[in-house]
Design brief:
With about 325 residues, the chain is an alpha+beta fold. The protein has helices at about 1-5, 15-25, 115-120, 135-140, 170-180, 200-210, 255-270, 285-290, 315-330; strands at about 30-35, 40-45, 55-60, 65-70, 75-80, 95, 100-105, 130, 150, 155-160, 160-165, 190-195, 215-225, 245, 295-305, 310-315.
Length: about 325
């Protein structure tokens, strides 16, 4: 399921393919609706009705690009959709538009760069997508302004239990929620598959206002910097050390009692767990926490190397331990 989800293209504002797949997986196991922005709100009836209304949240969208212009020579100008560093784009293969036209993101040849240009990443304004067109008129036969473009990336296993793919942020969260919806739950639970997280947490603001949950658990991916030459707290979090439970990021100060409960639950059940050693990034908790009457929030994330690129890397054991932690938390979080 994770491979299928990751290989689907669905950047912010273009999540339809991902949404259709999710609906096809959950429609026989729950009640659901699609809101005005395109998020899916599902309700799974459990054996009991809880004291607290609980929702689980993950976002469907991924980072990508949007076409903003076509040069006279047939090259495509574009802008990033979501937080992408230009350095991860050079010479990458992309697919453009509904016809999945293949192209390569290019810049001025290295040997033609001025010295100051060689010492820094190129600006997006100077990058172009080459689709092999010889003129603007030829390119316009295949691509229109406003078309989305996506990293072309395969899904593969690396080494001892590592996975490489695009869109692991946050198709992993979507997969885990689909699995829960298909399972038997002890308590009634809401599930929000949100749109447009990567461009300002927009979808979750609407779904959380609709659901009005007392407690909201956000399933995410987060940046791991456990690379050669990076030491101590600069590693932020580490692949293989289990799910990441955050105490604070740039959008949210997380509920202290829920934070402690996650660690207590993990310790009781022998589940490895870690926290982030940096206050950085953000996720849908930032809008869910302050939407409507407000909600207590907890983020559980998969550590991921090279996030927001064509080649994010996670470890299978972290996925399994996240799955275990969520299952155990759902036994105690409702009261």
């Amino acid at each position: 399921m994770l491979k299928t989800l990751c290989l689907l293209n669905g950047t912010s504002g273009d999540e339809g393919r991902v949404r259709d797949f999710i609906i096809s997986e959950i429609k026989d196991y729950c009640d659901y609706k699609v809101d005005a922005l395109g998020s899916v709100i599902a309700f799974k009836k459990g054996i009991k009705t809880p004291n607290n209304k609980v929702s689980l949240n993950a976002h469907m969208d991924e980072v990508g690009f949007i076409i903003t212009g076509i040069t006279d020579e047939g090259y495509l100008r574009f802008s990033p959709v979501g937080g992408i560093e230009s350095a991860v784009c050079l010479d990458r293969v992309v697919s453009v538009g509904e016809k999945n036209i293949k192209g390569v993101i290019g810049d001025k040849a290295f040997h033609l760069l001025e010295k100051e240009e060689k010492d820094k990443s190129p600006e997006f304004e100077k990058l172009l997508i080459d689709i092999g067109a010889e003129s603007k008129e030829e390119a316009e036969k295949y691509v229109s302004l406003g078309d989305f473009a996506y990293f072309e990336s395969d899904f593969c296993e690396l080494g001892n239990g590592f996975i490489k793919a695009k869109a692991l942020d946050d198709r992993i969260g979507c997969m885990l929620m689909i699995e829960l919806i298909k399972s038997e739950l002890e308590y009634d639970t809401y599930f929000c598959f949100n749109v447009q997280e990567e461009v300002g947490l927009r979808g979750s603001k609407c779904t959380s206002f609709d659901v009005q949950s007392d407690i909201s658990v956000i399933l995410e991916s987060t940046t791991a910097a456990d690379l050669d030459g990076v030491e101590g707290d600069k590693r932020v979090c580490v692949l293989g050390n289990g799910p990441v439970v955050s105490f604070m990021d740039r959008r949210t100060i997380y509920d202290k009692a829920l934070y402690n409960l996650a660690f207590e639950t993990a310790e009781k059940n022998g589940i490895p767990v870690q926290t982030k050693t940096a206050v950085a990034g953000g996720n849908d908790a930032g809008s869910i926490q302050t939407s409507g009457k407000g909600s207590r929030v907890l983020a559980i994330s998969l550590p991921s190397r090279y996030i927001h690129s064509a080649s994010s890397v996670v470890k299978e054991s972290d996925i399994e331990n996240t799955r275990r932690l969520i299952k155990e938390l759902l036994k105690v979080i409702y009261d």
